[in-house]
Design brief:
Radius of gyration: 12 Å
Helix content: 40-55%
Structural class: alpha+beta
Order of helices and strands: HEHEH
């Protein structure tokens, strides 16, 4: 299984390690691939726009979901 985002592998492994079901988790990320990984892992996500232009990219990802 690929481990690079947007693969859900890292998110899923972290959830399993802490015994947290995906529906009870929120993944905070600053890139479109973070949001895609969270979605693939069946978790909610919050996009953190930490640089100019990121809000638009993260918002565009939300609209394509």
């Amino acid at each position: 299984m690929p481990l690079m985002k947007p693969s859900p592998a890292m998110v899923s492994m972290a959830l399993q390690a802490h015994g947290v079901p995906p529906e009870n988790a929120v993944f905070v990320g600053d890139s479109v691939t973070d949001i895609e990984a969270a979605r693939a892992a069946c978790t909610m996500s919050i996009g953190y726009a930490n640089k100019p232009g990121k809000a638009e990219r993260l918002g565009a990802r939300r609209l394509r979901a």
